[in-house]
Amino acid sequence: MPSPIALYHNVVDRLKRTPDGLMVFMARVGMGAFFVRAGQTKVDGDFNLTSSALYLFKEEYKVPLLPPEVAAYMAAGVEHIAGGLLVIGLATRLSAATLFGMTAVIQVFVYPGSWPDHVLWMAALLLVLSRGPGWLAADSLVCRLSGTCGSDAPSGTPKTQ
Q: What residues does each domain of the chain span?
């Protein structure tokens, strides 16, 4: 019977072999879905701002430099578009960078006390930014079909010169 320490090291060794693509997939889909759901809370079925969303942008969020209506529509649009693209893995790094920037704005101007949540979101988005979309992403398919995979191609994707 192996000792508890040996079992622990065995588990850690197996975890170290977790493919980047699996971790990126989970971060990408989880964060994308999170932001799409956040966007859905701001609009009704016809993509009109809800009264509660407008109230929050007027009274609580108070994003500088933008009228509340503009900020609310921008937030809902970015959350739906960038979040949706992140889920399917299309324009992945651009989408992750956009949501990373949005999270930074939320942290600095809206909810500075919610930094533990924002650090978690930014860590997941940074993983996607640094590792790319992973092999199970529309970007990977586009890369393979176009034959234009560069040095930052997802793991398992053949590189072209």
A: 21-146
